[in-house]
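Priority: medium. Attachment 1 of 2:
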């Protein structure tokens, strides 16, 4: 059986995307893991299936590179929006469902997409960290210099410290610099550092705003793969709504799989 796929990337976060509205592709952990393998497969941080769901343009189903179905991926949501346009499912905006609920997205130009995230109104604050669920769980840790962090070693140590019964947590190492923030991320399911993380960027901006009691509601997040912008409306001490993630996204190539 031959299946068409596309490769997309958003600020270096890369994904295999398959139009699965027909239900032809049956997800299998080992198959997805092999497709995402960077040496023996296509290579990606994750794989997404675009599927049908009533009342929406599409349903986004996301799998990490370890082959397991996972929670929301912000950069993935931006990339699958471009994929939907490529397949003439949308024009310049979309309303779609993910595992965490409804999302809206807008294509601002052919390589720049914004995505509306879920509201955040509850998080854990520790002595030197925040634990925030922005569609995916994130441990946010402030550091003096992200370039001096061994992300894979330290991230692996923290990764199972929170959300233990639901797969652990992603780990964000954050270096504040005004409203421009440097971020490096260890992603669960990838089990290593990725070039960018959308839900992690949102968690980082919210943690920064709350910790520093900042009046800023718009932040530029510097990741290894490029800049992402996070904006929101703050209500009270710890309620965040109208959260938008935006940044670059690009179609890399198309191909065919022999299953």
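Attachment 2 of 2:
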């Amino acid at each position: 059986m031959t299946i068409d796929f596309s490769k997309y990337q958003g600020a270096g976060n890369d994904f295999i995307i398959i139009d699965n509205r027909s239900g032809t592709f049956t997800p299998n952990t080992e198959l997805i893991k092999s497709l995402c393998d960077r040496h023996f497969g296509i290579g990606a941080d994750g794989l997404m299936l675009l599927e049908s769901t009533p009342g929406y343009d599409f349903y986004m189903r996301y799998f990490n590179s370890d082959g397991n179905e996972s929670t929301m991926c912000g950069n993935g949501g931006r990339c699958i929006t471009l994929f939907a346009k490529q397949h003439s499912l949308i024009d310049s905006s979309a309303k779609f469902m993910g595992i965490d609920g409804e999302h809206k997205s807008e294509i601002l130009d052919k390589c720049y997409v914004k995505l509306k995230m879920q509201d955040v109104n509850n998080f854990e604050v520790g002595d030197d960290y925040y634990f925030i669920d922005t569609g995916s769980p994130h441990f946010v840790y402030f550091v003096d210099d992200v370039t001096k962090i061994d992300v894979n070693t330290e991230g692996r140590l923290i990764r199972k410290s929170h959300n233990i019964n639901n797969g652990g947590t992603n780990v964000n190492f954050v270096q504040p610099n005004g409203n421009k923030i440097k971020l490096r991320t260890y992603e669960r399911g990838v089990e290593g550092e990725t070039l960018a993380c959308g839900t992690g960027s949102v968690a980082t901006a919210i943690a920064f705003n709350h910790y520093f009691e900042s009046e800023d509601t718009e932040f530029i997040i510097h990741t290894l793969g490029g800049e992402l912008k996070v904006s929101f409306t703050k209500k009270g001490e710890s309620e965040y709504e109208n959260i938008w993630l935006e940044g670059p996204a690009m179609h890399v190539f198309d191909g065919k799989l022999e299953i």
